[in-house]
């Protein structure tokens, strides 16, 4: 059996490995800390209307497959106010706001407001099951590439965009809608 004293070149290598491991560990700890701060800042943000560059501008066009097997584009909705909600079946706050969106469709549909749900990072089967479970009768659209969500600047769900009859985004709600949010923002876009 030989010792480090008999092989003096082993000690410097071992020390270099230890230092390298400490540097890597420090970077990992710093990365985890940065991630925790990032998630805390974004997730802890209260729900509500958000003033973003998309507000006051024409809504980005989309032409997507519906869960029912057809297609629907924003151009087809021109002349109607639109409540465009990004959601997923795995999203807990989406479950909370589902009845509000269904009620909005029933209440404001006769007044020219179209409620549309865009499925975000979810399967069509799960989305259909969700819509059945929550009694949603408005169209659900598939965005498999995520392009529509990117065009609207969605960074988390649920997010809802309120588009007036001329096709301009009038407000954006980050997080689940409340009854007051829904009423106030829809009343602002009713034709």
List keywords for this structure.
191 residues; alpha/beta; six-stranded mixed β-sheet; 8 strands; 40% helix; 19% strand; elongated
Radius of gyration: 25 Å
Q: Would you state the CATH class of the largest domain? A: Alpha Beta
In total, how many beta strands?
Answer: 8
Question: How many helical stretches?
Answer: 5
Biggest β-sheet: strands ordered side by side in the sheet: 1-8-7-4-5-6
Q: Find the structural class using helix and strand composition.
A: alpha/beta
Measured distance between first and last alpha carbons? 89 Å
Number of domains: 2
Mean pLDDT: 85
Helices and strands, in order, run as HEEEEHEHEHEEH
Give a verbal description of the structure:
The chain has 191 residues and is an alpha/beta fold. The chain folds into two domains: 1-44; 48-187, Glutaredoxin, CATH 3.40.30.10. 40% of the residues lie in helices and 19% in strands. It contains five helices and eight strands; from the N terminus they run H-E-E-E-E-H-E-H-E-H-E-E-H. It has helices at residues 10-43, 92-108, 124-133, 147-152, 179-187, and strands spanning 48-49, 63-65, 71-73, 81-87, 113-119, 140-142, 159-163, 169-174. The chain has a six-stranded mixed sheet, with helices on one face. A two-stranded antiparallel sheet has the order 2-3. Helix 2 (92-108) crosses helix 5 (179-187). It is elongated. The model is unreliable at 36-46 (pLDDT under 50).
């Amino acid at each position: 059996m030989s010792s480090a004293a008999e092989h003096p070149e082993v000690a410097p290598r071992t020390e270099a490995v230890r230092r390298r491991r400490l540097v890597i560990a420090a970077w990992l700890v710093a990365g985890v800390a940065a991630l925790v701060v990032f998630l805390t800042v974004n997730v802890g943000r209260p729900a509500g209307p958000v003033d973003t560059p998309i507000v006051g501008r024409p809504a980005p066009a989309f032409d997507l497959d519906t869960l029912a097997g057809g297609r629907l584009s924003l151009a087809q909705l021109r002349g109607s106010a639109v409540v465009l909600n990004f959601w997923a079946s795995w999203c807990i706050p989406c479950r909370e706001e589902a009845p509000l969106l269904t009620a909005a469709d029933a209440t404001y549909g006769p007044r020219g407001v179209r409620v549309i749900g865009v499925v975000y990072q979810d399967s069509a089967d799960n989305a259909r099951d969700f819509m059945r479970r929550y009694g949603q009768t408005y169209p659900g659209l598939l965005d498999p590439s995520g392009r529509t969500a990117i065009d609207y600047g969605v960074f988390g769900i649920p997010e809802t965009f309120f588009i007036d009859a001329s096709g301009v985004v009038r407000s954006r709600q980050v997080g689940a809608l409340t009854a007051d949010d829904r009423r106030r923002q829809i009343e602002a876009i009713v034709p």
